[in-house]
Amino acid sequence: MMGNMDIYNKVREVPPEAQKKITAGRLKGFTDINPMWRIKVLTEMFGPAGIGWYYEIIDKRVEDGAAGEKVAVVDINLYIKHEGEWSKPIQGTGGSMLVAKEKNGMYTSDECFKMALTDAISVACKALGVGADVYYAKDRSKYNAPNGEGKSGEQPKPDAIIEPQKQKIRSQIQQLNITEAELTKTINAKSLDDLTKQQASELIAKLEASLKKRA
User: Fold this and answer.
1) What's 187's DSSP letter?
2) What is the number of other CB atoms lying within 10 angstroms of the CB of residue 136?
3) Could you give the CA distance from residue 215 to residue 209 in angstroms, rounded to a whole number?
4) Element (DSSP H or E) covering residue 74
């Protein structure tokens, strides 16, 4: 039987050829990981896609952003076969701009859902420790605030909740007739901003289950 950290330690290191430093724009200074490297890691650890691991898309949606922008969001469940048994769902939420405000005007992407899916897979893989050394080394990720700092000059939490997730949660609690203050108190958080993307994804699933029970 494998130890608790065996998978994590086997997949945490990212080879240099799978890393790319982002040198310009809002994400300058961050490290991008080649998405095919994650697929390779999953295949090496668990077997071919569909046999040793697979994912299912549980939701695809478009959320309104600021100033007319729109975000494509994809929620997935990732499953791995470990020691002959399938795992419980490993959730991941990914996002990519569908309509973005750029220097020359509004831009519409025809690959936003593909990129959001890739992002969701990367989020789910983080729970297994895939690429952990890159994310943990600088204690930051592409989801930090654009200026690299949070309130009072503090470094924001890595992999922080994204705006579409906040909007989804607020919509759900409105339907459940719960205030945001009541919700955050029950999950021991000062605000929704304290959540990571993974925690937000799990909370969305729980709230969705509560809504289905009421239906």
Assistant:
1) T
2) 13
3) 10
4) strand 70-82
| CATH no. of 8-144 | 3.30.390.80
- Can you state the percent helix, strand and coil of the chain, rounding each to 5? 40, 25, 35
Q: Tens digit of pLDDT for each residue in 143-188?
A: 444 444 443 334 444 478 888 888 889 888 988 888 888 898 888 8
The token duo for 76 is 């997935």
Q: How many other β-carbons are positioned within 10 Å of the β-carbon of residue 113? A: 19
Place of tokens 């969705």: 208
DSSP letter at 154?
A: P
| CA-based torsion, 133, 49, 72, 34: positive or negative | positive
Domain range summary for the chain, segments of one domain joined by +: 8-144, 160-215
89 alpha carbon, distance to own chain's centre: 14
Distance between CA atoms of 137 and 52, rounded to whole angstroms?
29
**Exposure b/e, 54-78, CB count within 10 A at least 16 = b:** bbeebeeeebebeeebbbbbbbbbb
Size of the chain, expressed as the number of residues it contains:
215
* CA gap 51, 81 in Å, rounded: 8
CA atoms within 13 A on the CB side of 204: 25
> What phi and psi, each to the nearest 5 degrees, are found at residue 88?
-70, 165
Which amino acid does the sequence have at 104?
N
pLDDT digits (tens, 9 = 90+) for 33-53: 999 999 999 999 999 999 999
DSSP character at residue 110 = S
